[in-house]
From TrEMBL:
GO MF annotation, one: DNA binding
Name of the featured protein: MmcQ/YjbR family DNA-binding protein
Gene3D superfamilies (alphabetical): 3.90.1150.30
Highest taxon above the source species: Bacteria
Span of the signal peptide: none
Length: 124
């Protein structure tokens, strides 16, 4: 798995970027303006950091139900129907746990790419 920030630190915009960009084929762009960081694999977004520092990411159907029902995350604005959750304060989460969620988000999105695209990105 990708290297993660040390335990106990704050998962801020920079650390989120380091974790996401360490994943195979990941890239950063700013389709919603310079204050929103969108991490993509194969052109598909898997994590987004908002202007205020909150983070949204893709999850499985089961994780979506569990995280939202437990109150650990809320449905992501505009993306909830696609099973994205939002954390207004990612620093409140354990770094390793959050890094694992980002890796899973990457895996979910990358898994929907064509085999050719995955091979080109070094994922398969």
């Amino acid at each position: 798995m990708a290297s993660t920030p040390e335990r106990g630190g704050l998962m801020d915009r920079d650390r989120i970027g380091k974790v996401c960009l360490a994943l195979p084929g990941a890239m950063l762009d700013h389709p919603f303006g310079e204050h929103h960081d969108a991490y993509r694999v194969g052109g598909k977004m898997f994590v987004m950091v908002g202007e205020q520092g909150g983070v949204s990411f893709k999850v499985s159907d089961i994780a979506y139900e569990i995280l939202t029902e437990m109150g650990r995350a809320r449905p992501a604005p505009y993306l909830a129907r696609a099973r994205w959750v939002n954390l207004p304060d990612p620093s409140a989460w354990d770094d390793d746990e959050l890094a694992e969620h980002f890796a899973i988000a990457h895996r979910i999105v990358a898994g929907k790419l064509t085999r050719k695209a995955r091979v080109e990105l070094g994922i398969d």
